Fold:
Amino acid sequence: MPTLVLLRHGQSRWNLDNRFTGWWDVDLTEQGAAEAVAAGRALAAAGFDFDRCFTSVLTRAIKTAHLTLEAMDRLWIPVEKDWRLNERHYGGLTGLDKAETAAVHGEAQVRLWRRAYDVPPPPMADSSPFDVSGDRRYAGIAVPRTESLKDTVARVLPCWEERIRPALARGERLLVAAHGNSLRALVKHLSNISDEDILGLEIPTGRPILYTLDSGLAAVERRFLEPA
Structure:
């Protein structure tokens, strides 16, 4: 049966600071790096092996992929980076403290921006210091000014159909190291989760999600890997 493991990056510096991160490139904390190593050791202990890894173009996901694979002695396998696996773009909320934002706009409004399926945050201003539209890794790409989870699903699914699914169909064993919302987009699709129910799905950092797929790549089971 095809092997598919999803892994949210370890704790980032802005996770620790409780800030909206989105497409801004921040590094892992020491705890985040340790979470990635622990995930790799747990996967190896459980008998998992991989032929290919997919990740985003953001440092926290790339480092998580590398640290996880290094812990498995599989640092040599191909790693494919795709911007479509980036975190959801948080628009004008990028860089803001979540608690302070709730104090200004109200918890109900911030909850709507964060959890509603099709309501995006306010768009990022052109003058924002967190604007990445000029970053060379996005050359030729129309960088969004903001995204809802629905928007994130719309860009993640083509990556699934064009890159990830064909690799699984070839029999490759895959690790996808990405972000909370890009992985929620994949889980929503694979597990056929409704627009309403996906709002309650939380994906913790550094804890592998194991998918059992049938020969047609339909999901049979989804579960977290228990710590080794």
Observations:
- The chain is about 35% helix and 15% strand.
- The longest strand covers residues 3-8.
- The first helix runs from residue 13 to 17.
- The mean pLDDT is 95.
